C-alpha cells in the first residue's frame, strides 16, 4: 500500500522551477554576451580592388575632357533669294573651290523681275537722252532771244545817241530824242532780265539732269542686284575647302531666301573643342599648355577660349593646335584632351580615389596587418589632377590605400583582404 509524501512532490516542483529560471538566466547571459561582440569583418578579394601607395614628390596637375576637332573657320552657304532646287551636283566630302556650283535653283518670278527692271532702265536711259536734247534746244532758243534783244538794245542806244545829237542841233524835236532814250533803256532792262532767265534756266536744267541721272543710277543698281540674284541661283561655294554638310534638301524642294543650304570648311585648319567638368574648369587659363589625343597621334596645343557658360555640367574649352595634324584627322573626329594647369614640386599624393572631389574630406581603406586587412581612415584631400590627388591630412608617405569603388562597404570600418 502506497503512502503519500507531500514534501517530496514539493521538492520536485521547486527543482523544476529552479532549473527553468536557471535556463532562462543562462540564455539571457549568452544573448547579452553575443550582442556585445562586434560583427565579423567582411572578406574582399584583393584582386578585385585597386591599391595605390602614398608618395611624395612633384605632381603635375592636369584636367581631362572629351571633345571633337572642329574647323577654325566655317562658311555657311545660304540662299540669296527664294527658288526651287533643280539639281544637286555634289555630295558632302568633296573638295570645292570658290566658284564650284553646289546647287542649281530656278525662279521664274526673279527672272521676270530682272527683265522688267531692265526694261525700266532702258526707258529711263532714253528719257534722259530726250531730256538732254530738250534742255539744249531750250537753251539755244533762250540764247537766241537774248541775242536778238542785245542787238535791238545796241541799235536803240545808237539811235538814242543820234537823236540826242540831232536834238542839240535842232534838227529833230526833243520829244523824239526822249522816246529814243526810253526805248534804249527798256531794251537794256529786257536784256538783263533775259540774261538772268538764261542763268536760272541753266541751273534748272542742271537740277533736272541730276534728278534724272539719280533715278537712272537707282534703276541701274536695281538691275545689277536682280542680275546678281539670278546669277546666285547657281549657288557657289565662295571659298576653297571641303563640303562638310548639305541641308536636308531634295530636288524640287522650294527654299526661302536666307535658308541654310551647305557648310564649307578648310580641313587643314582645325582646333579642338573639349568638354571639361565644371568643377575642374575653374583653374583653366588662357594660354595653358594642352595635348590633344586623336587616337592616331598626340598634337600639342594651347588654350585659346573658355566658354563662359556651363552646359550639362561641362565647360567648353577651345584648344589651338600647335603641331601638324596626324593622318586621318578631320572635322568632327572624337578626341581626348588634357590641359596642364600647374606643376607642384613637393607634395604628398596618391592615385585619385573613385568619386573623390578635390578639397574634400573622404574616408579611405588603408591596408594594415601586412596587407591582410584594411581599416577605414578619414583623409583630407587637396588639389587634384587627372589621375592623382594631393593628400593634406590622414595619410603618410608609404601608406597603401584602396582607391577603387568601395561604396558597398560603407557600413564597415574594417575589411579582410583575401
- Report the average pLDDT across residues: 85
Counting helices, strands and paired strands, the structural category is alpha+beta
User: In CATH's first tier, which class of the largest domain applies?
Assistant: Mainly Beta
Helical segment count? 4
Estimate nothing, just give the exact number of structural domains: 3
Q: What proportion strand?
A: 25-35%
Largest sheet: 6 strands, antiparallel, barrel
The CATH topology of the largest domain is given as Elongation Factor Tu (Ef-tu), domain 3
Characteristic terms for this protein:
single chain; 418 residues; alpha+beta; Elongation Factor Tu (Ef-tu), domain 3; OB fold (Dihydrolipoamide Acetyltransferase, E2P); 3 domains; six-stranded antiparallel β-barrel; four-stranded antiparallel sheet; 4 helices; 21 strands
Walk me through the structure.
The chain has 418 residues and is an alpha+beta fold. It has three domains: 46-70 and 267-417, Beta Barrel (Elongation Factor Tu (Ef-tu), domain 3), CATH 2.40.30; 74-107 and 233-265, RNA polymerase II/Efflux pump adaptor protein, barrel-sandwich hybrid domain (OB fold (Dihydrolipoamide Acetyltransferase, E2P), Beta Barrel), CATH 2.40.50; 109-231. It is 37% helix and 33% strand. The strands form four sheets. The protein has a six-stranded antiparallel β-barrel with strand order 3-12-15-14-13-16. A four-stranded antiparallel beta sheet has the order 4-11-9-6, with no helix packed on it.
Amino acid at each position: 500500500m502506497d503512502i503519500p509524501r507531500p514534501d517530496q512532490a514539493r521538492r520536485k516542483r521547486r527543482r523544476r522551477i529552479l532549473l527553468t529560471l536557471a535556463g532562462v538566466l543562462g540564455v539571457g547571459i549568452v544573448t547579452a554576451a553575443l550582442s556585445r561582440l562586434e560583427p565579423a569583418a567582411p572578406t574582399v578579394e584583393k584582386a578585385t580592388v585597386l591599391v595605390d601607395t602614398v608618395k611624395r614628390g612633384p605632381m603635375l596637375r592636369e584636367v581631362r575632357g572629351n571633345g571633337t576637332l572642329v574647323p577654325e573657320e566655317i562658311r555657311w552657304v545660304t540662299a540669296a533669294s527664294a527658288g526651287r532646287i533643280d539639281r544637286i551636283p555634289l555630295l558632302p566630302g568633296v573638295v570645292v573651290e570658290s566658284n564650284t556650283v553646289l546647287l542649281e535653283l530656278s525662279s521664274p518670278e526673279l527672272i521676270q523681275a530682272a527683265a522688267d527692271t531692265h526694261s525700266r532702265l532702258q526707258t529711263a536711259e532714253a528719257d534722259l537722252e530726250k531730256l538732254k536734247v530738250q534742255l539744249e534746244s531750250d537753251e539755244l532758243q533762250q540764247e537766241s532771244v537774248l541775242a536778238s534783244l542785245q542787238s535791238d538794245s545796241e541799235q536803240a542806244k545808237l539811235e538814242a545817241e543820234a537823236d540826242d545829237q540831232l536834238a542839240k542841233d535842232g534838227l529833230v524835236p526833243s520829244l523824239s530824242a526822249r522816246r529814243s532814250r526810253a526805248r534804249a533803256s527798256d531794251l537794256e532792262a529786257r536784256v538783263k532780265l533775259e540774261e538772268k532767265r538764261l542763268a536760272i534756266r541753266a541751273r534748272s536744267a542742271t537740277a533736272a539732269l541730276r534728278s534724272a541721272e539719280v533715278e537712272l543710277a537707282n534703276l541701274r543698281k536695281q538691275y545689277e542686284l536682280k542680275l546678281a540674284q539670278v546669277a546666285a541661283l547657281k549657288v557657289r561655294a565662295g571659298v576653297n575647302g571641303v563640303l562638310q554638310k548639305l541641308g536636308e534638301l531634295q530636288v524640287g524642294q522650294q527654299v526661302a531666301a536666307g535658308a541654310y543650304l551647305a557648310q564649307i570648311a578648310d580641313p587643314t585648319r582645325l582646333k579642338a573643342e573639349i568638354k571639361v567638368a565644371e568643377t575642374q574648369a575653374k583653374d583653366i587659363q588662357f594660354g595653358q599648355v594642352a595635348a590633344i589625343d586623336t587616337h592616331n597621334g598626340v598634337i600639342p596645343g594651347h588654350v585659346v577660349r573658355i566658354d563662359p557658360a556651363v552646359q550639362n555640367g561641362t565647360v567648353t574649352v577651345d584648344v589651338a593646335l600647335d603641331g601638324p595634324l596626324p593622318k586621318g584627322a578631320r572635322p568632327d573626329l572624337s578626341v581626348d584632351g588634357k590641359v596642364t594647369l600647374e606643376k607642384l614640386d613637393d607634395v604628398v599624393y596618391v592615385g585619385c580615389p573613385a568619386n573623390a572631389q578635390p578639397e574634400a574630406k573622404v574616408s579611405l581603406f588603408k591596408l594594415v596587418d601586412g596587407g591582410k586587412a584594411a581599416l577605414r581612415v578619414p583623409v583630407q584631400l587637396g588639389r587634384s589632377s587627372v589621375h592623382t590627388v594631393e593628400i593634406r591630412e590622414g595619410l603618410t608617405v608609404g601608406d597603401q590605400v584602396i582607391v577603387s569603388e568601395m561604396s558597398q562597404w560603407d557600413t564597415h570600418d574594417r575589411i579582410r583582404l583575401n
